[in-house]
Structure formats: structure tokens, C-alpha cells
Amino acid sequence: MSSADRHILIVEDNSALASVVRFNLQRAGFQVTVARNGRVAWEAVQEQTFDLIVTDQQMPEMTGCEFCEKLRALDEYRDTPVIMLTAKSMELDLPRLKAELGIAATFLKPFSPKEIVKSVEDHLEAASEPVSP
Amino acid sequence: MLARSVNIELPRRVAVFYLLYSLVAIIWLAASAVFATKSIVVRNTEDELLSFLRHAAMVTTIELANHDDARLQPLVERFSHEHSLLYCAFVSGDNSYVAHSQTGHLGQTHRVDSGITTRHEDIEAVRYASGSLRIREYSSPIQANQESAVRLIVAKAEPTVGETLQLAARHAVVVLCVPLLLVGLGGFTVHRLVSPMAAIDAQLCQAAMASTLADVELSLIKARGPNVLGWNRIVREFQEESSQRGLDQRISDAVQSLRQGKSDDVLNSLTDGVAVSDQDGNVTFANQAMEAMFAADSKPGSLQGKDLESCLALDAEEELGASLFDPDHFARHAVEEVVRGEGEARQFLRIARQPIRAVEGTSSSGHVWTVRDITQQKLANAMRDQFLDNATHELRTPLANIKAYAETLSIGDTLDVETQKEFCNTINVEATRLARFIDDLLSVSSMEAGSLTLNKQGVDLGRLFSELVGKVKPQMAQKGLEFQTIFPAKYPQTKLDKDKVTVALVNLLGNAAKYTPDGGRVRFEVKITDRGIRIEVEDTGVGISEEELPRICEKFFRSSNPLVQEITGTGLGLSMAHEVIKLHGGDLTIRSKLGEGTTFIAMLPLE
After folding, report:
1. Do A21 and B404 touch (CB under 8 A)?
2. Is residue B136, in this structure, part of any structural domain at all?
3. B583 and B467 within one domain
4. Do B393 and A58 touch (CB under 8 A)?
5. What is the pLDDT at residue A1?
6. What is the ipTM for the molecules in this complex?
């Protein structure tokens, strides 16, 4: 599958940041949708299917973790890779996030968009690999 | 016996006994006198008789020498009469009466009933009883001519009891009355001497029966005499000493209670709760703060004796308070932070327990508890934590943008010029935002340290305000807010710290924009009044509730209104604006209605 078929959802309330991440992902060939907050994202995931979700943690109305929890209740999104962006180092308890919410990776702000893109590519590849018996 | 005697006064008692014994003595004396009288009378009579007898014998002898027998009878009659004899007789040798005063006995044989015989030289005395009389008969031989041996017999009756008494009675007046009088006088004297003692005696008996000497009320006696004076002196000293002792006791008690009261006062004036529990966990002392915190009712002393653990009523599920009541740890110091109550009444308490080291080496005698309400502290900490969260976010977000855009720019020659310009602009804007936030933080630090100082200089107000408008216009436009500005035509000269005032007003305007939903209105009006520069910032935003309005300018305070919570803020902007205005000698008034909007009115005096 080429990256053009992959649809990424960005959930970020800071529009400037969302823009630059989208710019980088689009430049890498992905289809990108941006949601301003968790509520909007929730509506989006029900309307469309995304291959990967990049979400901020601190957002109004619904935090990234809360959105993730809801996401996992949906069958089609049970295994969808989720990358989390956060401004707080405390929440980088990756093992727990991984175990409880299936979060694939976390990035602390400020981050490098190049690394984000690489992480997206890696996790999509990993997700598309057949599960070994 | 004692009780009965108390009812009879001492002097009377003394007098009675005195008189009693005296009377007995007198009676005894009287009886003895009577008895003595009889003996004396008898003895006298005897002596008399004996001497008479001798005399009579001589007379008779002379008569008989004249050989005149016929003269015997008149003799006996004469003798009998002269000496009041019971009888008088001559007895011949053949023991018959040759003469007898009682003529009826003439010729009869002289016979005497059995009696007691004694001899006084040649006179024989016989005492015998005849009927109710006791008779003494004396016989004396007469020395006549050798032919007839005659004996003269005289007899006298001993006085009877009645006669004795009569005899005695003759002297009775003298014998009895004088001692009686003397005894009477003596009794009177004794009574008088003793009557002062009555009062003393009564008081002594009282003292004997009182349970404690302090209950005895001794009184002075009004009487004269050294013993009374001595008594009064003793009583006075006793009273003085008791009152002194009473005073000492009262002083000692007062000092004790003062010390006690002082330490109680000290403990009761603490805001921390202090309590003492015994080894069974029951409260033996609780100060006022403790009672206010835990007592079910408002009566003082209501915690006394209650089981402390149940009084604290900590949530049993919480393990927080466990170590405080764990018996294994009783001998050790324990400190716990516990939670009590829910919602508005939620309290955080810091409870410390220290075992009391028993003084005399007995086993652990209980614990001292201190309870401190740290709710405020916790809340303050919570607010500061929230602030730190927000601060981190506010710092990292613009930085994230700067880095992301810069990195993106650095990669691409795939970017067109417009995009490049756009990206650079974003970097610039974000850098500014970051700088401003750092300024805010630094200001807050100075505010915290109390070292915020003003740099007052002459300022062009017109320029200040127009620059201000320029700063906030983009923000207003971004949200589609109607931004109304009203300025006076002329500005007076004044001095103020331009930078700080600008920041303060940017905060107010920025808030107005932030907290007003899209399409709302913000009015910025400046008026020059005689009090100074009046600046009004009015919005149609979310508003501030009545409960939160007094707190809105507190450092780190952020409204719990969800509409506010979802907008990033540090809780510092208003407190800084308020501080700056205050430092300029002005004031900040806030009017607001929840859901309708808020108006901030800042007054800056002219200088």
C-alpha cells in the first residue's frame, strides 16, 4: 500500500501546530484531516476510517487520552496506531499508555516534525504487517 | 454521756455537783453531830452520875453513921429529884430495896436483866435495855458501919433518838445554818467563777465534735477575768491564723488556677487542635480548636471521655489514617494526612500523634494529638500545580511551533516563497507570544517576592492607548469580535510605568477577547475625570459568578466555570493587572453577570 492511500487524522487545538504537522505529512504523501478537538475528532472517526491518529493530549472538552479511550471502544479502531503529542513530561509513562490505551508513541513538545513523519511511517508499516502466528 | 452533759451548762453542772457533795457532807456531819451529841450526853451524864454517886455515897455514909435508917428514903427521893434520875435506890446486903425512888419497888429484890457490865473502880455500871429504853445503872457500895452493907444504885436512861435529836436541834441553827450558808455562798462563788468557762466549755465541746477544725466558729466571750482574756486571746490568734491559712489556701488555689487557666488559655488559643488520650484511647483533654473540629455539639467539654478514634470519624475505607490507630505503633510517633468530608466541606487534616512518656516509669499512659487543618495549604498547592501545568503548556506550545516551522523551513526547497514567508511570520508571532509569557512569569516572580517596582516616567497617553489597540486588534479580529474604542480628545500630562501599564491593559483586553465567544463585543473606553484616568473594558463574554468575583484577582486563581477552563490561562493576568494598578495608587473595580459579560474599570490617578 502506498502512503497515498493512508489517511491520517490530526487532533490538535493549536491550529498553527496542526498546520505544520499536516504540511509535513502531506509532503510525505499522506492524506491528512485535522480536528480541532476531541469532540470534532470523534465525529470524524465515525464518519471516516483513518489509518493512524496523531493527537495532542491537552485539549479543551476532551483530552487526548479520553478521546483514545472512546476510540478503542470502536471495533475498527481497536488496533489503529495512535501517536500522542504532549507538553507535559509526566504523561510520558509510555508503558502504561501503551498497555491501557494502545498508544504507539509519544512526543514531547517541542518536537521535530521529521521525526513525527518517520514515526507515522514506521507504525503504519508495523500495523500492516501480518500478525505472526 | 458527753452529749447529755453538753445540754447542761458547765457552771450549773459544777454548782450542782458542788452542792450535792456539800450537802451530803453536811448531812453526814449533821448525822455525826447527832451521834456525837448522844455519846457526849451519855458520857457527861455518866461522869456526872459517877461523881454524884461518890458524893452521894459519902452523904449516905454520914447519914448512916448517925444510925438513921429512916433517912434513906428521903435521900433517894432527893437524889432522884435533884439529878433527874430514872430511879435511885438503896440496896441492902440481901439485895432488896431498902429505899427506892419509885416507892412501888420497895422491898423488892434488886434484879438486873442481862446487860453489859463495866467497872469504874468500885462502882459497877450496867447497861441494859428495858423496853425501848437503854438504861445505865450504877451501883456503888456505901461504907457504913460494918453491920449493914448498903449499895447505892442510881440509873439514868440514855437519851432516845428523839431526845438526842431534840438536844441536837437546839444547836441546829448554829450547827447547820452556818455551813449551809457558807456552802451556799461557796456555790454562788463557784458559779460565778465557772460561768465564763461555760462559753469556753461549749466552744471546746463544739470543737470536739466538728469534723474539721475549720468548721468551728470560735467567738470571743464578753466577761472579765484572766481566763476569759486568755481564751479571747487564743481565739483571736486562732481566727487570725485560720483566716491567714484560708488566705494562703485561697492564694495558692488562685495561683494554681491561674497557672492552670493560663495553660488552658494558651492551649485554647491555638488554632491547631490539641487533645490528650489515655491508654484506652479515650479523651482526657481537648482544647477548643479540637472541639470545634470534632465535637458533635457545641457544648464545651463534649469530647471529654469519648473514644478519640470514633470522634475523628475518619473514612474507614481510607488507609490514610490507619497508622494513627494501629496498636502495634502505639509507642511511636505517627503523622498522617487524612481527608474528611466531601465536596464543599472537604477538609485535609494533618494529624500527629505522640506517645506521652510516663513520668514515674509506669507503662505508656496515653498520647498527645495535634490536628492541623491544611485544607488551605492543599488548595494553594493544587492551584499552584494547576498553574505549573498551564505554564508548561504555555511555554511549550509556542516553542513547539517555532521548532516545527523552523525545521520545516530548513528542509525544503520545495517551498514556495509565499509559504516560506508565512512560515517565518508564524515563527515570529509565536516567538513574541513566548516572550510575552516569559515576561508574565517574571513579573509574577517579582510579585511573589514583593519586589515589583514601577519605573514612572512622563508618558504620551495617546500613543500608549493607540499602541495598545494595535496589539489587541488581531486577537479581536480573529474571533470576529466587535471592538469599540472611545478615547478623549485631549490627554493630560502624567507619569506612569508605560510598560507595566501596557501589559496590564493588554491583559484586560486580552481576557475580554479570550473569554468572549465569537461574534461578541468588546468596548474599550478611556475617560479623564478629576479623580484620574478612568479606563473601562467591557465584554459580552462568559461573565464571572458572584461567588468567584471576590477571588478573581487572586494569583493562580482560575474560574471553575467549564467555559473558562477550556481556555488556556495561567490565572496570573488579572492579579498582575491589579497589582500594577494598585502600585500606581489606583483601583480596579469589576462588575459582571454570569453568562452576560464583564466590565473592568481601572482608575489611575494623575501625577
Report:
1. yes
2. yes
3. yes
4. yes
5. 47
6. 0.92
